Fold each of these.
Amino acid sequence: MSDVEVGRSKRARVAYSFDDVSLVPSRRTRDPEVVSLNWKIDAYTFEHPIIAAPMDSVVSPTSAKIFGEAGGLAILNLEGLWTRYENPEKPLAEIAKLAPKDAIKRLQQIYAQPINPDLITQRIAQMRAAGVTVAGALSPQRTAQYAKHVVDAGVDIFVIRGTTVSAEHVSAQGEPLNLKEFIYKLDVPVIVGGCATYTAALHLMRTGAAGVLVGFGGGAAHTTADVMGVRVPMASAVADVAAARRDYLDESGGRYVSVIADGSMGRSGDVAKAIALGADAVVVGSTFARASDAPGQGRHWGLEATHSDLPRGELVELGTSGTLAEIINGPSHAADGSMNLVGALRRSLATCGYSDLKEFQRCEVVVTPN
């Protein structure tokens, strides 16, 4: 990896964002109809690798059904409004009317409502009744407290998602979550992250996780880079973690861990780039938050924005561009990569000459830094 001198005492790696990278077609092309976008994690197979982010502006038990029926996976935020309020429609309606510049204090107040474990059970039951794969997310800080409720309720895929998650957390406030021990005891597959480096990803893979989330601080509603100075450009992060997956496959004697890009997926082209750089699947937030039938009604925010001591996100006014079904599978009425994400990914594979997602990871890329 090339590096540069920041000053006499510090050198830095050169890293690239999705905007710096473009895909190169191979010597052949294909019809989009003969391209497969199937993605599998553990025992669960999906028609495409685009996952709805566990954010209250995107996923509700109702919208999770739409994503499932469209062939994908949606992750419900189990620390969000649906597990704090019996009727979350009222706080959602209030958030939809907040002025973004004044929103953080009110968001903190709304999310101060305690999590109700009975509502965790109830929401998971709603998703299961809809007949879709049930995925729910907790932060590392609350995983030990609520994990039993989540598993007993019948979740299919358990997601542990934070700004950054490590396998070696050091704490002065009691015993930290032992990821390896925790995952070993569970009977359901676990997706864990985020991380953005080869070493951190390799350690997370060794915990037994089925998937590793790549990225932190890069989403449309995140301000982690501004607040904490923490950010790794996603193109380089995905490629580094894909290398860890390759080496862990050899180290473990054949155990494959899915690499899931989580952040900076603002356009359908970013989804294609993430897969070409080595991701098996991607997590999309802001693009789905633009749906007219999304819970946020054109507003977008993450749990980071509600932190009581140090908010690392904001309420973003996005507006609406179409229904969830149109944003997922089209038809598109825009030429900016904001709709028909599945169709765009299929056409990217076809144009570059690849038949499935694993083949597409071999796609040549070029770097054109700004």
Note: Residues 234-251 form the longest helix (18 residues).
Amino acid sequence: MGMIFKRKIEKEFIAWKESLKLKKRALVVKGLRQIGKTTSVLEFAKANYECVVYINFVDEKTIKEVFDNDFVVDNLIRDLSAVLPDARFIENKTVIIFNEIQECANARSSIKAFMLDGRFDIIATGSLTGLRGYNKKESRGVPVGFETILKMYPMDFEEYLWAKGIDDNVINYIKGCFKMKQKVSEALNKTMLGYFKEYLCVGGMPDAVNTFLATHDMNQVRQVQRDILENYHDDFGKHLNKDEKEIKNKTESIKITEVYNSIPSQLAKENKKFMYKEINLKANAREYRNAITWLEEFGLIELCYNLNVMEKPLKGNKIDNIFKVYVADTGLFVAMLEKGTAHNILNGDMNTYKGAIFENVIADAFSKLDKKLYYFSKNLEIDFVTMYDHEVTAIEVKATNGNSKSLKSVLGNYAKYHVKGNFKLIDGNIGTENGINTIPLYMAFLID
């Protein structure tokens, strides 16, 4: 049994429970498989409720039938008690957990009845909830207005530090340095950059983190990551038919796999813009755009869009058909690359993928801050453009602290670009030179 890791989303669980005093809503936690949703939800439920009733719609198929009848809460509770003899339903002291809710459309529809009734709280988790048209059953609608939806991600760098047992005082000191623009003590900065390179390779999947902390063996970590990717692969193109039986769209599955397999070569290019010809020479947007959207809704990739201009609203200035694709967990991305990549990173040899891996981990950090991803490429290239401190901020990522020609050009031409805010993320320390703010790579999670 692995360790139970402290996760940031727990604060949001507590806020949701508080909000129930004003209005009853179910909590729906969605996100990739194997990122720790069920573990976090169960820990929270056990700490906050006298009775926890756990239903997994993947394992317990017979329970689905309970939800095929009318949504009268007393009848639902009676039928659930019969199917789950150990479950106890005490009014106002019970939470019902619907795990993998996307597998039972009517259970999701029943949420409204439960909330209007008000005697039982509900927490639902779903790994394929975001996939359009995943479940083809004629359900009785999504309970709009009766759910609080939270998206959960793999562990971020701060959660990784918690898992390693790094003291809060150390983390608070780093946050203070970032805020005050003061150098981090050299010894600590070096240690943190070391931990960050470790995090690049291990990533934030709880199983991978657990394996690394227990063994410090990157081969074992890679095996765990490859197994996770293999499990995801089994989901490619999967849907449920009108009877909620699993069906797989072969053609869709092949296209999704082809897009997924092309990601390393997409990011290895100097210009990391997504090119359909990297999938195969005949590939085009019409044929493959849906496969990209599938992977995005599944949660395995994040799209980063090019901007026409670096002005707010960023969303209004994005170019829909020009984007880069990043993997939602950099550890998984490293596991997609050649064996030995992790070893090279930890030993400071950054070869071909160096830019891609560092850009990926920054994209990943921003996604976990719920930021949409944008970049700017027009005669010059800015790796990321984001909002920070209410202003448009240009961000460059330098694995090797190289020259920042593009950033200098942008800052030197305010009349043209209207951008002052900036960060250059480096394998070094905090500093300011010619108006450019350098910060260590590991501080990306603070650009909130």
Note: The two ends are 34 Å apart (CA to CA).
Amino acid sequence: MSRRVRRTEKRLIPLVSGNDQERTPTTNQRRASPQSLEEPRGRWAELGLWADGLASEAVSKAEERGGPVLHAGSRPLDWEPSVDVLDSSVEDAFFFGQGGTTFLGVGAACSLETEVPSLRGYHLTGDAHAVRVVGGWGFPAPAGRSRAGIWRDFPPSRWVVPAVALTSQGGGARVALVVPAAPSSNAAALAARYRRLLGVLDARGAPSRSLPRLASSRSLPSEARWLSLAERLVRSISRGDLKKVVLSRSVALRFAGVVPPSAVVERLASLNPGATTFAVKRRGAVFLGATPESLFTAKGGRVEVDCLAASSSRSDDAASDDLLGEQLLGDRKSGTEHRLVVQAAVAALSPMSSTLEAPRSPVLKKLATIQHLYTPLRATLLKGVDAWAVARALWPNPAIAGEPREGAVRWIQSSEELDRGWFSGVVGVVDAYGGEASLAVGIRSGIVRGRDATIYAGVGVVEGSEPRLELEETGWKLAVMRRALGLEGG
């Protein structure tokens, strides 16, 4: 994410306008030719020729098969791309930073808006192990309700195979291109598109991009209305109708100027080093956040699940901060809330696992503005179980919906009075075969579109919850996005 890059000679490449798909030229030329494009210089000569070659290979593979293919290639990269791509006019972009690994994708080789976005129906050629599926899905919306307003470009589920993807890990970086081709495709047009996308990745924004001042702020629903809903929910839980429901609220913010998403993402990463930073761009809007909660990671048949629920504030004084943590560990209501999340994860994983490790007691996970009860689970999956099956079994979990799941989701859909969109949904990266995955829960998040931003927070309401204290907790959580947007008051 650093703006300091190693540069060789550079040519200006226009940003992609509107849809990043290129129209097929009128020429009958079917093979990519360097002479048909502006002659690149420096590193662009090598990368451009590489893109030309992959485009030609993709068309050849499609001709051999007699049908469409996704043709992939990858190679080391000698510069660190910038998240300034989120400010460009490209329609699809994705960023995911977890631990020491960052992933940046631009453009869509193909898009999947199905409930289970598997690539099993696609024919992969070339370096198929470099192919990744990225994106997410939103919290379940009531039947018949379509997304509108600030969420209008985010369908219930949208995953894409990035046309160009960059992975940085341990000081090294790789770039992967995935080229969709049919026997009738024009390789020169494909190559031109990928040269432009590479140019978007190398583009840099203005040297100084200060965040605009806040013009207005409005709670949705109002704080008084939210307290009334919380009180009604506590009464319902006390009657035994439900065990837990996560009640959310949002704050709609309008700024005096356009909010640059790249600046917000950089602040999220720097202010929340222990969190997973993400951004999903779709047309003119960017869903972004710094979530402390991984839904799960999977690799080599092993799955790691973070159970995160029950919260307390932080203190700048070390002794006071330790006391707050001890109180959280000993709080009965918090323990009940956290236990529901662990039990649900164990119940979901048990039928699909040969081994499952679950610690008896939670520990503290301390973040910049808040601390949580945390229990890590480890499981070995049965043969044939992929990441998509695990994701659907675990989500929505009691940490973002409630318990029992179906009843909690129904209560939220009928009573919450806001459109969550992708807040508390799932975002992440999955390999082409569903064996390796990093998926996170989209909390501590918001959506930015032009001058507008809407930020979200939720709290778990259980028996004994006090609505005013729960409202205060939403303030701690909203502070993550407020600080990232330059509203230092939290």
Note: The chain has nine helices and 21 strands.
